[in-house]
Design goal:
Blueprint lengths: L10 E6 L3 H12 L4 E7 L2 H11 L3 E5 L7 H11 L4 E6 L2 H13 L3 E5 L5 H24 L25 E6 L3 H8 L10 E6 L6 H9 L5 E4 L10 E4 L5 E8 L2 E7 L11 H12 L3 E5 L8 H9 L3 E5 L9 H7 L5 E3 L4 H8 L7
Parallel strand pairs: 1-2, 1-3, 3-4, 4-5, 6-7, 6-12, 7-9, 8-9, 12-13, 13-14
Antiparallel strand pairs: 10-11
Helix pairs in contact: 2-3, 3-4, 8-9, 9-10
Length: 360
């Protein structure tokens, strides 16, 4: 809404939640950072829609479950009338997960899991996550309008020629912006894709199962939440379950199994892109292809470096089509990417690498 925002001014946030406790808790967390300020609060969707043109916030937080005009309907109206970045605040239930995924498809920037309560043990982590997501949302909105991701010209040339070796497995990592990005590119893969794809998408517990089912209904390839000792089959996409690291054990040239574990402990993200990719690089060496997509932070930088050094092929999403250019940036700065391409060109890069030929 702000046509020429002052980057030195605090990021203005409108909090929308029917719970007075939540409005107070979110206000305290947001205003603990001097770069942010709460422009106002709203008790429901209708009040938020009335206040947005008056308060002109940079970012809106929106409860998924509210009486009257619910979070999804409010989000649709915001996207139509005031295309602002919106962060959903969602309960950790299956219904809450499904509604949150629908919100991301509608155009929400990201979401914050509403824990059982904002207790003292969680408060620092939740506060840091909320602040980081608000800042990322405001930066994204200042860079470009919200809306469907479109292809752009590649920003960098390959760092070296593509390896001749045909990959036997694809290891893909993503975080903020990933659900919408995956929903855009995974339907582009054919059912007879000759390799399996391992995906780590940072999500809270209870979200990855509904996410996999949602994607499976949209795609030609089979998409499922990974389970212990799953054999990795061609034409199947395995999404790491939230709360467990996913690694791969290669028993022979034609047989590989998925292993789920809580180890290593004390990782920032569980599952971790690095843990998955380091495992895939060790098991498959030059036969592993790594793909890093939109997300905050640097998870995946070590894993992509390992794939690159093992002789595997590496591809990163470009800045123009990333919701947050964090994880791909870390890999680009480390010099571990062979290609940097727009989101919609990633499937083509994979299909070319595996020498896919469409059957008549």
């Amino acid at each position: 809404m702000n046509s020429s925002p002052d980057k030195s001014a605090p990021i203005r946030v409108l909090i929308t939640d029917d719970s007075a406790f939540m409005r107070t808790a979110l206000t305290r967390m947001i205003e603990s950072d001097p770069a942010l300020c709460v422009a106002g609060t709203a008790m429901n969707g209708n009040e938020a829609l009335q206040k947005i043109p008056v308060l002109r916030p940079d970012v809106v937080t929106l409860d998924v479950e509210m009486p009257g005009l619910n979070g999804l309907e409010t989000l649709r109206r915001i996207m139509q009338e005031f295309p602002l970045p919106v962060i959903m605040v969602s309960s950790l239930t299956q219904e809450g997960a499904e509604e949150t995924l629908e919100a991301l498809a509608i155009g929400a920037f990201d979401y914050l899991p509403k824990q059982s309560s904002f207790v003292s043990l969680d408060i620092v982590k939740i506060r840091d996550e909320l602040v980081a997501k608000i800042k990322a949302a405001a930066e994204h909105h200042r860079r470009k309008p919200m809306g469907r991701v479109t292809a752009a010209v590649s920003e960098k040339k390959p760092s070296r020629a593509r390896p001749v070796v045909c990959p036997s497995i694809i290891a893909l990592g993503t975080s903020t912006g990933g659900p919408r990005a995956l929903q855009e590119i995974l339907p582009m893969f054919p059912a007879d894709l000759p390799v399996g794809i391992l995906i780590v998408q940072h999500m809270p517990k209870g979200f990855t199962g509904p996410f996999a089912r949602r994607l499976n209904n949209l795609c030609h390839v089979t998409i499922r939440e990974a389970e212990q000792n799953d054999p990795i089959h061609p034409g199947t996409v395995y999404i790491a379950p939230a709360g467990q690291h996913m690694t791969v054990e290669r028993r022979s040239s034609s047989k590989a199994l998925i292993h789920l574990s809580n180890l290593p402990e004390k990782m920032l993200h569980v599952p971790s892109v690095d843990v998955m990719m380091l495992s895939a690089a060790a098991a498959f060496q030059s036969l592993c292809m790594g793909v890093i997509m939109t997300g905050m932070g640097a998870d995946g930088a070590q894993g992509m470096q390992a794939i690159y050094k093992a002789g595997g092929f590496t591809v990163g999403q470009d800045e123009a089509t990333c919701t947050v250019y964090g994880m791909p940036r870390a890999c680009a700065e480390a010099g571990s990417l062979h290609r940097v391409v727009p989101l919609t060109e990633i499937p083509e890069q994979i299909l070319q690498a595996v020498n896919y030929r469409k059957h008549a």
